[in-house]
Amino acid sequence: VPATGDPPVLVRGIAALWTGRALLRDAAVVLASGRVAWVGREADAPGDLPALDGGGCIGLPGLVDCHTHACFAGSRVDDFARRLAGATYAEILEAGGGIHHTVRETARADLGTLAGLTRARLAGMLAGGVTTVEIKSGYGLALEPERRMLQAAALAGGPARVVPTLLAHTIPVGRDRARFVDEVVDDWVPACAPFARAIDVYCDRGAFSLAEAARILAAGRAAGLAVRAHAEQVTHTGIAALAASLGASSCDHLERIDGDGVATMARAGTVAVLLPGAMLYLRDAPPPVGALRAAGVPLAVATDFNPGSSPVRDLLASATLACLGMGLSPEEALAAITVNAARAIGRPDLGRVEVGATGDLALYLPPPGEPADPRVLVQYLGGHRAFAVFVAGERVV
Ligand SMILES: [Zn+2]
Fold it and tell me: Around 93, how many Cα atoms within 13 Å sit in the side-chain half-sphere?
């Protein structure tokens, strides 16, 4: 995304601006050279600038979806119907469905096809005010298709910003475990590190063991990647504490995290990424949000957008589900999709409207009859369209 924004633009008429940390009434923002140059009460705004009148809107930082699997090919609609008719995920896997189907279809898709699908998905997210989307690999299960996924994710960026992550997702059926982990550590990590910002591993029953995950994360960290983990989702493995002790920027899912994991995450400043879409589709129990909150672990929320366990593209709707299903307050949910989500992807310059931050801003009209109060964007379930979106100071919607 080019850091333009020249000449500076004054965005005024923001009845309620959520900055990522605080609420400002009757606010204005100056974006210049790709950054937030000024923010405050409109009455104090600098004059003589080209202006956009928000007309009494709600302003949010450009939203950050910090956990997605948005680069994939193929449809899982048949799996969805089968599950509703009573099939278990294990039965679907045995029939060649589930992740096996997505891996097959993604392997079959060339770079242009994957990039085009991903770009179309990002366009819809951007219209909802999501300016930054983290996208994981993980449907390749071999070096070449994993790298192709990362390249497709990068190609899909602009105007939305893409943050790619190398994900060691699962072990292909019939492969020798130790040899496969060697391949990830020795071949994937060095070949994919130039195309990724973070390493992520799915450590759980049916995927990587704690010891295998530790090797993969350590290799990624040694290659300069930030550390993240799909942690404590189906079973408790201890991966949250281990990843946090490696300095993980986030641990995600956490339905079955224990007290040691919570305490280690709190000490390390690791963000907890909550994924209420997966919780809903898998009919799972919520993570222990009260314990995470009490320990001071920052809470983020993401869509976990993927074709199987969370076909959810709407980040504001995910924030609503986190309130209803996990007990977040509307204010916590707003921080969870802005400032804390930015921390989870290691980009503290995003997700806030403060001087010096990257100039990402989304403006919304409240639903008809509702006040200009950012909490209504969380109260009403999804479907919010931003009427103006700025990425790095440039208007893109
Ligand atoms: Zn995931």
Answer: 7
CA of 138 to the centre of ligand 1 (A): 9
Cβ pair 293, 322 in contact under 8 A: no
The partner residues of 200 in beta bridges, in order of sequence, read 167, 228
Query: Could you tell me if 221 and 251 are in contact, meaning their C-beta atoms sit under 8 angstroms apart?
Result: no
Residue 150: which H helix or E strand, with range? helix 143-156
Eight-class DSSP state of 277: H
pLDDT band per the 50, 70, 90 thresholds, residue 5: very low
Whether 334 and 378 have beta carbons less than 8 Å apart is answered as: yes
CA of 206 to the centre of ligand 1 (A): 15
Say how many Å lie between the CA of residue 283 and the centre of ligand 1. Answer: 16
Q: Residue 355 gets which letter from DSSP? A: T
What pTM, to 2 d.p., does this model score? 0.97
Res 47: pLDDT: 85
Output the CA–CA distances (angstroms, integers) from residue 71 to 113, 210, 265, 266, 375, in the order listed: 10, 26, 29, 31, 31
What does the alpha-carbon distance between residue 82 and residue 98 come to, in Å, rounded to a whole number? 11
Q: How far is the CA of 186 from the centre of ligand 1 (A)?
A: 23
Q: Give the SS3 label for residue 396.
A: coil
Chain segment 275-301, per-residue pLDDT in tens: 999 999 999 999 999 999 999 999 999
262-271 pLDDT tens trace: 999 999 999 9
Distance CA 374, CA 203 (A): 36
How many C-beta atoms surround the C-beta of residue 376 within 10 A?
18
Tokens of 267: 């000490």
> What pLDDT does 6 receive?
64
Q: How far is CA 233 from CA 69, 166, 253, 275, 285, in A?
A: 16, 19, 5, 10, 10
- Measure the CA–CA gap between 349 and 255, rounded to whole angstroms: 29
